[in-house]
Amino acid sequence: MYVRILAIFLSLFLAVSCAPKKRLGTATSTHDTAIIADVREIPQNLETFASSYGKRKLLLSANAQQQLYESFQRIYFGPWQMSKTSIKRGDVAASFKKARGYKENGTPWSQEEWDAMRQNANLAAYPAMAMGAITIRNTDLRELPTSLMRLSKPVANVKDDPFDYFQYSLLPPGTPLLAAHKTMDGNWYYVECPIAGGWVRAADVRLVDDSFKSAWLTGNYAALIRDNVPLANGIGQSSGAKGGIGTVLPVTSRAPGYVNVLVPVAGSGEFAHTAEISLPPQQATIMPMPITAGNVAKIGNVMLGQSYGWGGMFGDRDCSSMLRDLFTPFGLWLPRNSVAQARRGSVIPLEGYDAKEKERIILADGVPFLSLLGMRGHITLYVGQWRGRPAIFHNVWGVRIIKDGDDNERHVIGKAVITSITPGIELENLYRPVTFVDRLRTLTRLGTR
Q1: Distance between terminal CA atoms of the chain?
Q2: Contact criterion met (CB below 8 Å) for 256 and 30
Q3: DSSP H helical segments within 304-449, as ranges?
């Protein structure tokens, strides 16, 4: 059954995923950025932890993984099975009501600007359509039909505080959509996709007909296991698209050392066409890839050290999108946000325990490379022990500190790292009453109930 995340809940869920508390402030950054001890002392190589656990050890049986992969396909292609949108007009309209935040140039959003976006959205006619569609390149899923940002405070450099609250997610090429509406200027579609509903640029999307769906719904798929892979056919770049980990494409055939797949390309009109390309095994794998510690580590190492990107800002990943993309080649479906991911499996509550007892439970019951550790606003992957303590892999903006009397500042990490569950504990200005371990709420084993 297709899992729908209604827009009425979307802002709440995404607002707590990996981000600091919203706070108005000054136009300059005061973040600390020195490298924390965990990143200096713990090996920043997932294969170190996979080797310790057993690189070839299956984390799930082949039968269990196949069942999860079949569920993945039902959810992923769910938008193409819908005859109408599940998101009500009122839920879409709610986002347009009151102007909030600042634009990238530091000026506040005005109500007149929001009203103009609402008028362009022509919500009186919503939903004006219900047609299958597909992304032909990476595209942003947005709260409102604009590429401009909504920041919580004016900043001199957006990358000092990279949280655009219009940004829901980055959708890779080949993402199935249900197109439910279009703006009056024709530049934006309102869509439902496998993870949420929101606005996408029309230039990045094409409609699909039954013939396209038949060609695409083969039941056999490959997933990219590298980032920035050009999706070019034999006569050159077909759509200007590049795919990354999390991209899923239909397999047409296999050749020695290569897998041939379909990619979506723009035709002369509103509808997508297909092109066939060949990808080497260094770039793509047949789904589902056997889920071993070594294989998860292999893909995770590609992401290790990559910059933090809230909701896919600047083409980067945040905590939840990193894990979602990481498990896609294995055919394990994860929702978009950290709250929902922490519930996706067999859950052991950690609230109410002290730090020492939480560590004991994690070491006793956690399965390296298959267990998630969740807290309010953040999600991590447990990868095993380092010097007798739990180690986690996560893409994180930073840890909370006190600076110049402000107890809601951040010591910025700003990338995917391997740490303990007390990152930054050595910092003299760490916000001591609440560290990562104190905030841990759940230990979740994926693929089980």
Answers
A1: 17
A2: no
A3: 319-327, 338-341, 355-365, 436-439
330 three-class SS: helix
51, containing H or E segment? helix 46-53
d(CA 300, CA 330): 12
Q: What one-character DSSP code corresponds to residue 20?
A: P
6 contacts: CB under 8 Å, gap ≥ 6: 86, 87, 91, 197
> Which among 135, 140, 119, 169 is positioned nearest to 13, based on CA atoms?
169
Q: 19 Cβ partners below 8 Å, 6+ apart? A: 163, 310, 377, 397
Digit-by-digit pLDDT tens for the chain (449 residues) are: 444 433 433 433 343 446 555 433 333 445 777 899 999 999 999 999 999 999 999 999 999 999 999 999 999 999 999 999 999 999 999 999 999 999 999 999 999 999 999 999 999 999 999 999 999 999 999 999 999 999 999 988 888 888 999 999 999 999 999 999 999 999 999 999 999 999 999 999 999 999 999 999 999 999 999 999 999 765 444 556 899 999 999 999 998 889 999 999 998 889 999 999 999 999 999 999 999 999 999 999 999 999 999 999 999 999 999 999 999 999 999 999 999 999 999 999 999 999 999 999 999 999 999 999 999 999 999 999 999 999 999 999 999 999 998 888 999 999 999 999 999 999 999 998 788 999 999 999 999 87
